Amino acid sequence: MTQAIEGFRLSAQQRRLWSLGRDGRVPVCQCAVWLSGEPDVERLRSALDAVVARHEILRTGFRRLAGMQWPLQVIAERGSCALESVSGQGGVEEQLTAAASAPFDLERGPVLRARLAGRLLVVTAPAVCADAWSLRTVVAEALGGPVGEPPLPFVQFSEWEHELLSTD
């Protein structure tokens, strides 16, 4: 039985990052911010889910069929951010390490995780989905910052890159 999925090729950078991953552990990007005032966990959860709904790459899973060297990016219609609220003990380094230590399920997601430790918010994503700049954008949008024009979907960039690299 042949399995068919609709997906998109990885970019060159994603292929490089994918090759670094082992046993569900992949390179991650993180952003940490101190929130002013007492955070409203449910409001924060809703705001992060809205950001995931806005950005396709944060709803993307990675599926590799038999015989494929690289997985395909498969975009889900819906997604969410896994938000964990923990006791505020430990410093920033400890919270970053704890947030990065759990493996990601890159096939099923979620690919965006947030850890709230008191007023410290740590946002973590696999590097195949986000970089430092994009995580700053995620946090700014979730905290009510300017949204602006809809972003270029990453798969469009990836396909453009493949076209560019295949021409003289």
Brief descriptors of the model:
two-stranded antiparallel sheet; globular; 168 residues; 19% strand; alpha+beta; 4-stranded mixed β-sheet
Topology:
Blueprint: H1 12-20, E1 28-34, H2 41-54, E2 60-63, E3 72-75, E4 82-86, H3 92-101, E5 113-117, E6 120-126, H4 132-142, H5 154-166
Parallel strand pairs: 4-5
Antiparallel strand pairs: 1-6, 2-3, 5-6
Helix pairs in contact: 2-4
Mean pLDDT: 88
Shape: globular
Cα Rg: 17 Å
The neighbouring-strand order within the major sheet is 1-6-5-4
State the separation between the terminal residues, measured CA to CA.
Answer: 39 Å
Structural class: alpha+beta
Largest sheet: number of strands, sense, barrel closure: 4 strands, mixed
Low-confidence stretches: none
Strand segment tally: 6
Q: Helix coverage percent of residues?
A: 25-40%
- Helix/strand order, N-terminal first: HEHEEEHEEHH
Give the oligomer, counting copies of the same chain as homo and different chains as hetero.
Answer: single chain
* Helical run tally: 5
Strand fraction: 15-25%
Characterization of the model:
This protein has helices at residues 12-20, 41-54, 92-101, 132-142, 154-166, and strands spanning 28-34, 60-63, 72-75, 82-86, 113-117, 120-126. With 168 residues, the protein is an alpha+beta fold. Strand 2 and strand 3 (72-75) form a beta hairpin. Helix 2 (41-54) packs across helix 4. The radius of gyration is 17 Å and the shape is globular. The N and C termini lie far apart (39 Å). The model has no long low-confidence stretch (mean pLDDT 88).
